[in-house]
Each structure stands twice: as structure tokens, then as C-alpha cells.
Amino acid sequence: MNPVVRNWKQATLLIVLAFYTAFAAGPLFWTATMSLRTTTEIAHSPYALPEILHFHKFAEAWVDSSYNVYFSNSVKVVLSAVVIVTLIGGMAAHCFARYRFPLRRVLYFTVFSTIIFPPQITIMALFQIMVDYRLYNTLTGLTLAYVAFQLPITVYILESFFARIPSDLYDAARMDGYSEWRIFWRVSLPVALPALSTTIILNTILLWNEFLYAVVLITDESMHTLPLGIQKFMGDRMEDIGMIATGLMIAIVPVVIIYVFFSEKLIQGMTAGAVK
Amino acid sequence: MREAASTISKPVLPPVDPSEWTSTSMSPVHASAMKAPMQGSRDLSRPMGAIVGFLLPALTIYVAFTAYPVVRTLYNSLHHVRPARSDVYVGLENYIGLWGDEFFWKAVTNTLAWAATAPVFEQMLAILLALALYARIPGARFFRIMWFTPVLMSFVVVGIIWMWIFNYDWGVVNSLLRGVGLDGWARSWLGDPTTALPALIFVTTWMWTGFNMVVLLAALHSLPSEVLEAAELDNCSWMKKLWFVIIPLIRPTIMNLVVLSFVGKMKVFDLVWIMTKGGPLWSTETVSTYVYKRAFEWNTFDLGYPCAIASVWFFIVLAGVLLLSILFRQRGKLEY
């Protein structure tokens, strides 16, 4: 092809892609600018860049609007759910991948198939169960629901990885007299570190952003996770665009920080849940 | 026999190769191409004690918080379930009630419209973008990272941002329209029953296109380059190459993405709940928001009826997924 024509084509393509980039990332950027501006400034000109960086708004939201409570609830629930689901999901995945036993396929398929279940099929009964066991409106109840929610995908990703670890490793470990439990800790988990980090990232992001289970299982404001807190704040102060934007950024910033450092790993984690 | 066991246990999606995960290139899709050399085999030993020990925690959680709730929902759907009163068996009354419930049908229509259109938009846009990056455009890595950002935010965050974007007075959409002199087109996008649902569908497309693009791009990179070069030599037109060579080759990936997107739209709740609560005039009511309203918002104090809706919807989603996978498979058979 004629190089001039090719350059023109490439330039056009680049312009189109730049427009799409503005469209895809613009809303996040816009929110970030608004989070540093006051509502009065925003009302004056919604699209201007911040002239003075009002970082104190973050402190205000954090202390005065109980974002510190929402944030720490989110951290508690997400961290404990991710630790538990990684551990018990890893154990189950190791078992499905490395041993042969009756009903193995049936059990695996049963757990796996719940990936496509709409949450409505469990959510109301889950509400009843949590009330029955006095776990309603507690972070423990929400954590358990989250563990169950992320279990199938975790088992799925880890099983396909464990199944492909060469069995020589396991044979060697058995020769050395390792117990099955020790094999899991000393062989499966260390070798599967890349897959583990993938499921950890995937589960962290999905649960950090989760809303439906939280809204059904939590009512007490002191138990609110970030998405619930944001929704409440939004309901209370509809017009205070600047502060709402600050609240949104408090929820986004941890994810953005992870993304800045581990973008490839994070993309891999998010898509792993989808593709394989 | 052992081979068979390992393939059947992974029903929809191809397996992963550990070596893939250690590399920094993110192309999980092409793992299947190189799985052969590292095929691990299952251990023949059956230490039943260890097996039970490994499975017990996961299965306990699964039974308590997934299997039992599903059964209980199905049970509820045949009863009147009121707080502090014992359940009354009503047979199929709840299901029969669904027939005459116009709000339910409105919700079904809206949700199906969403699930039928959004996956198509997402895939079409995503494949074009993926091809653009595949053509070794400068800055491809930057584009990919930027396009992926929407999916990192929660629906709550996305919902609030897009409420501002669609705001009548100062939202981006209306400001742009007024800026180019199309003042007449400016409207309250979320307040108008005719535009509210399309606006929400637009938001989910915005949110998920980048995600689909990344997955498709990984699939493209896993294609053998000889095939594409051969198509080049045959002087295929650009569109022909896309339609007859590229799309058939990455069909399994497309199928997974369509199924995933379909399931996602069939259960969409958060975005609607934040942005419109199903309004105006039921124009954005989805099955999920209607179930939530019947269960927790309207003071009907009956979980039986919403459970009936959830049960019906559960089977419709399963049927939809089955139908999609059959459709994709048959096309495969016809073409090869």
C-alpha cells in the first residue's frame, strides 16, 4: 500500500480511537476532577478543571459523613471473604483436581453450574436464613453470603490450574512422606501462586463493588459497606454533587491504585472469571 | 478414560495452562493451544479421609448458602410466606397470579429487550476495537488500559456518574447537544419513558465493551498468524476477512462472552436501582428490581410471590443459556 495512504488511514484510526478513549475513560476523569472541587464551583462550570485542589473534602467525607465506617466495613467484609473463599475454594479445587473419588464429576458440575444462577434465586431465602440464624444485619452474615457467591468461580479457576501441575511433583512429595494436607500447602498452593493471585484480585474487585447482597442483608447504617454508604449519602444530599463525587472517589481510589501498579494482572484476573 | 474425565469436568470453557499465568502477557485464551506438553494426571490414590477433609468446608458453605436457599426459594414459591406466621401452602396460586400481573410482563419485556440488544452492541463494538488494536496501532497498551477502566467501578458509582451525564440542565449529553445547536434534542433522558431504557442499555454497553474487547484481543493474539496471512494473499476484502476468517476462528470466545453478557443483563439490578428505580412509568423495571420491590419494598409481607417470579426467571435464564450454546454449536457444524 502507498505509505502516504497508509499514514492517513492510521491517523484517522488514531483519532477515532482517541475519541473512544475519551468516551470510555472520560466519566472517571470527570468524577475525579469534581471530587476536588466544591459544589458551588461545579454549579458555576461543571466541566472546568479544579483551580484549587480541595483535598480537605476527602477528610470531610471520611470523618463527617462516616465514610471511615463504610470503608472499614468494606475492608473487613472483603478481606475476610476473600481469605476464606481462597482457602476453602483452594482446598476443594485441589481435591477435585488431584484425587479420583465417587461423585467427583457430579459434585464439581453442581458447584460449577451455579456460576450462571441469577442471584434472585437465592437472595430471598438467604434473607430468611440469615434472620433465622441471627446473622441478618451482621458483617459475618454478609461475609458468608459473599464466600458462597464467589466459591464456584474460585473453584473453577483453581481446579483447572491444579489439574495441570505435573504429577511428578506430587509423587516426589509422597515419597518424602508428606501428608495430603502438607502436599496441599507445600506443593499445590506455592505452584499455583499465579492462579491464586488471579482469583484473589477477581474476588476482591467484585466483592468491593457488590451491591445486591449488601442491600438485602444489611440495613443498619453502622454496618453499611461502601456501595450502600454511597447510595445513602446520595439519597440524603442529592444536590451536593461535589461531596458525592468525593465519596465516589473514596470507593474508586483503592481500585485505581491497584490498577496503576498491577494493570496487567488485574485485567487478567477480571477476564479469567469470564473466559475460561 | 482419564482424558474423558478431565474434559467432561470442564463443561463450557477450555482449560488453562499454568505456564500461561506466569507470563506477563495476558492471553488466557490461547492457553488451550499449548496444553498438551504439561498435561498433569490425577493421582490414583484415594485417601478418603483427606478427600472429605478438603471438600467439607466448601460443600458446607455451598449447601448452606447456595443449595438450600435455592430449594427454599422453590418451596416458598408454592406458599404464602409471611413474617412471624407459618407458611400456608397455596399450590400454584403464585404462578397463576403471574399471568395476570402486568407489571411482571412489563419487567420481562424490558429485561428481554436489554438481554437481546446489549450483548450484540457490546460484541460488535468490542470486535472492531480489538481489531484496531490488533493492527499494531501505536499506543495499543495505553488504549487497552484506558478502555478497561469502566468495568472496575461498581454499578453504584457508574449509576451516579451517568445520572449526572444524563442530567437535563448541566449533563454532558445535553451540553454537547446544545453546543452543536441541537437544543431541541436535549431532554431529560432518564425522566422520559421512551428514552430511559435505551439510556440504561447505553450505560451497560459503555461499561462492558472494554472488557469484551480485552478478551477478544487475547483471542485474536492466540490465532495462528498463517491463517490471517493466507487470507491476505487471497486478496480478501477487509469485511470478508473479518466475517469468514476471524469471527469463525474466535467463535468459542465470542460465545462465552455472549453467554456471560446475556446472564448479566438478565439479572441486572444495581444500575436500575440507582438510576431510575424502575421508573418512569415502569419503563425501566427489570425482573430483578420487581422481585426486590415485591419482596422488600412494597409492604405486601409475602415472600411467596416474589419467589415464584425468581423461580420462573431462573428457569428462563437456564433455558436461554442452553439455547445460546446450542445455537452457537450448530452454526459451527454447518460451516465446517
CATH fold category name of the domain at 66-236 in chain A: MetI-like fold
Our Rg estimate of chain A from Cα atoms comes to 23 Å
E-strand count of chain B: 2
Helical segment count of chain A? 13
CATH architecture of the domain at 101-335 in chain B: Orthogonal Bundle
Can you tell me the overall shape of chain A?
A: globular
CATH topology of the domain at 101-335 in chain B: MetI-like fold
- Give the overall average pLDDT of chain A: 89
CATH superfamily of the domain at 101-335 in chain B: MetI-like
* Pattern of helices and strands of chain A: HHHHHHHHHHHHH
- CATH architecture term of the domain at 66-236 in chain A: Orthogonal Bundle
The level 1 CATH classification of the domain at 101-335 in chain B is Mainly Alpha
Average per-residue pLDDT of chain B, rounded, comes to: 81
Main sheet attributes: strand count, strand direction, barrel closure of chain A: none
Instruction: Give the overall form of chain B.
Output: globular
Amino-to-carboxy terminus distance of chain A: 39 Å
CATH superfamily of the domain at 66-236 in chain A: MetI-like
Percent range of helical residues of chain B = 55-70%
Number of helices of chain B: 15
General description of the model:
The complex is a heterodimer of chains A (276) and B (336). With 276 residues, chain A is mainly alpha-helical. Chain A has a domain at 66-236: Orthogonal Bundle (MetI-like fold). Chain A is built from 13 helices and no strands. Chain B is mostly helical. Chain B has a domain at 101-335: MetI-like (MetI-like fold, Orthogonal Bundle), CATH 1.10.3720. A two-stranded antiparallel ribbon of chain B has the order 1-2. In chain B, a hairpin with a 7-residue loop joins strand 1 and strand 2 (88-89). In chain B, helix 5 (102-134) packs antiparallel against helix 12 (251-266) and helix 6 packs across helix 9. At the A-B interface, helix 1, helix 4, helix 5, helix 6 and helix 7 of A face helix 1, helix 2, helix 3, helix 6 and helix 7 of B.
